[in-house]
Protein: hydroxymethylpyrimidine kinase
Amino acid sequence: MNTYPSRPVVLCLSGHDPSGGAGLQADIEALLAQGCHAAPTVTALTVQDTVNVSDFRVLDRAWVMAQAQAVIADLPVAAVKLGMLGSVEMVDTVVELMQQLPGIPLVCDPVLRAGGGGSLGKDDVGYAMRERLLPIAAIATPNLPEARILAELPEGTADECAEKLSPFCRHLLITGGHGDETDIHNRLYVRDGDSHTFTCVRLPGSYHGSGCTLASTLAGRLALGEELVSAVRSALDYTWRTLRDAEQPGRGQYVPRRLPLDFSQ
Structure:
């Protein structure tokens, strides 16, 4: 039997997307592409396709806790990635779990809306994430609409949202692409006031699962030991390539191609 060195393990707490474009499948594919091992813990079940989400059900807190604790007891978790939580109770569950993983980087993707606009949690979920999860996260990765929800600034710019959220988190990556600008500006804000802007060319079309791809890739890069700013750059570059090569398997948005068609590549 061939044996290989263990790949870094990333614990993923996310929802299940039956279309395969976002959620845990996106996490698994993106982490495989980074050379990491995904340990997927299901937080919610959704009814969705590549167009939009029509319904969801958050799993029982005890079931989610049992899944994650089984992983923590058995595998050396090197990073944690959060996706859809869907309820305040699930936010509390993550806080409790992270107490068992001191020093492990947490990447918080505040999934509050589906790409088609459908809600993935009540309004109080965003508030709970801001107050309880952002302070313990290594980095949060909202897109601009999600940043506005977290900051309670419905028309806020990225800079205005970052100013409001800076007391809550060490690093904040607000991704662009929700306007009509030719180039997309992704902005990384650091609590000490430093900032970095990463620019990429806008691609045509809309995409299902780009935020999940970015956050899980970033968690993988951190699990591999990459420094945070460099890891952000690596994750953004990889995500852009998955969107450039995206496919349209259904009637709605394009799905990032996170893995090569030929695994010998």
The mean pLDDT is 92.
